[in-house]
């Protein structure tokens, strides 16, 4: 069965790194990807842009294609946007369909700090997207939980709803939202790190200007 992939993020703002790796994951897995902005992201300061502003940027970024789909369910929930709650909800709505939670390599290394992280493997597969930068060492408890789960080929995810782990080798994109926010606050215009449509409406990047 064709999997459904989920790519969550603060998306403060959505950038070409997110879009490029989500698109390539969609091709590698032959799956649509739900692009899911978190309402109140756990374990980090609140986003600079409001939920409405981040959604407005995502809508512009996701125009003209149909494989990456905006999903705003986490914005409708109160409290921290725990991924495990989202995956329980998605699992309930998708029967035995394979679900693949996409995480950048940095996010994957931090998985043991997440709410109910071991349960995620009962609910979905995990696809780890390569990301340039210093490679964080995987904590021992993550290695213990995952060493038997790795598979090499996307086809191996199709016959099971959850429980496997795959490394998705995507084009290295050395772009981060933190750096983009810094550049905009310094009066710069990081054109080729962001979807060009974000520059068409001066209001979209206004939250980051000083
Ligand atoms: N350039 C990239 N390559 C691969 N994965 C990425 C890249 N940028 C972000 N990600 C992944 O996208 C998800 C959402 O990331 P997030 O919205 O926090 O972006 P970010 O650029 O890391 O932002 P910030 O700098 O604000 O932390 C995470 O799983 C993260 O690892
Ligand atoms: O569920 C958790 O405990 C949890 C802890 C940290 C991050 N997440 C999710 O991981 C995704 C990427 O997070 P971030 O902070 O890198 O944007 C986003 O969807 C967050 O909601 C989830």
From TrEMBL:
Keywords for this protein: ATP-binding, NAD, Nucleotide-binding, Nucleotidyltransferase, Pyridine nucleotide biosynthesis, Transferase
Keyword Transferase attached: yes
UniProt enzyme class: transferase
Protein name, as recorded: Probable nicotinate-nucleotide adenylyltransferase
Stretches assigned to the Cytidyltransferase-like domain: 6-182
Reaction(s) this enzyme catalyzes, per UniProt: nicotinate beta-D-ribonucleotide + ATP + H(+) = deamido-NAD(+) + diphosphate
Species classification: Bacteria, Pseudomonadati, Pseudomonadota, Gammaproteobacteria, Lysobacterales
Pfam families reported in the protein's UniProt record: CTP_transf_like
Pathway this chain belongs to: Cofactor biosynthesis; NAD(+) biosynthesis; deamido-NAD(+) from nicotinate D-ribonucleotide: step 1/1
Summary of the function given for this chain in its UniProt record: Catalyzes the reversible adenylation of nicotinate mononucleotide (NaMN) to nicotinic acid adenine dinucleotide (NaAD).
CDD domains: NMNAT
Coiled-coil regions listed: none
The EC number(s) this enzyme carries: 2.7.7.18
Protein family membership: Belongs to the NadD family.
